[in-house]
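User: Last request for today: this protein with 2-succinylbenzoate, please.
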Amino acid sequence: MRLREFSVALRRPLGTAKGDIDRRDGVLVAVEVDGVTGLGEATPLPGWTESLAACREALETVTNPVEALDDGSLDNTPAARHAVSLAVADARARSDDRSLATSLATESHTSLPVNATLGDADVETTVNAARDAVSAGFDCLKVKVGARDPETDATRLSAVRDAVGPSVSIRADANGAWDRWTADRFLDAVAALDLEYLEQPLPATQLDGHAALRRLHDTPIALDESLSVVTPSRAIASNAADVLVCKPMALGGPDRTLSVANRARSAGVDVVVTTTIDAVVARLGALHVAAALPGERAHGLATAAFLDTDVAADPAPVRDGVMHVPCGPGLGIDVSALFH
Ligand SMILES: O=C(O)CCC(=O)c1ccccc1C(=O)O
Ligand SMILES: [Mg+2]
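Assistant: Here's the final one, the structure of the complex with 2-succinylbenzoate:
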């Protein structure tokens, strides 16, 4: 297995309730499966995955990539497992001469709607960013909340709703910033705004709290960080979510993400696939995984624009709020663009 480290700055930091994300560092991998090369990427983000040091160490110990996926050695390092699992899946799809999405599902989407991601900012900046996103063709916005008091966040969202009108879908993501009472205040204040959902209002371990919010308010609830600290089965069984926000990087790879998504769907829980603001290889992986899932919701994959540079050219840029799934073999990116 070949490894190549990379480091990219964000063009503009993403402000969240848990601080700014301003750079992303990770490891690209290339594996050989039956003589065919596949590409993977580990871009760890503590809070969702292991540290970069733990990720690097786990990848350096892999001798047989296919066996490493099943022997438990990568179970505590989801970003490292993601890189290996994606690379093996990419190699297999390439040797079958199929796109990754079509190798993962008998029926897959050829294009997907995606949400614009709006960081924490004051009311005016948030409204301007929302208008810009809608002008660019997005009909779904995800706004970061939880860095301000809940009434101020409600004012931001209300101003966004007024600016974009009723036909644009609005999501909010608090990144676990609140306690039950603060989340109640926020949900009371936004009750008339018809939010698509509120993502991770409470800390990751508080499944019962999320279940209570779901019972007491009409705004649907989504879980994100919780999926990194409790088993997906528990998250699904606890009635704590209408939607699971699935980050392949945090769940340990495309295979694990598909299995979580299938279990969620059987329980009547929807799935939205997002990135941890990854480089092009992992973004494409998440796009193919999302394409392999049924459902019509917008995914959180429009994160390329946060990066100042990338490790290779992007074959799936966002146009009009939509991403087209590359139909060439595997991920749809040349191995030679990344490994010489
Ligand atoms: O879902 C999106 O719109 C983009 C991804 C995103 O918001 C995100 C990006 C990096 C780290 C955490 C998160 C998050 O969903 O909380
Ligand atoms: Mg989130």
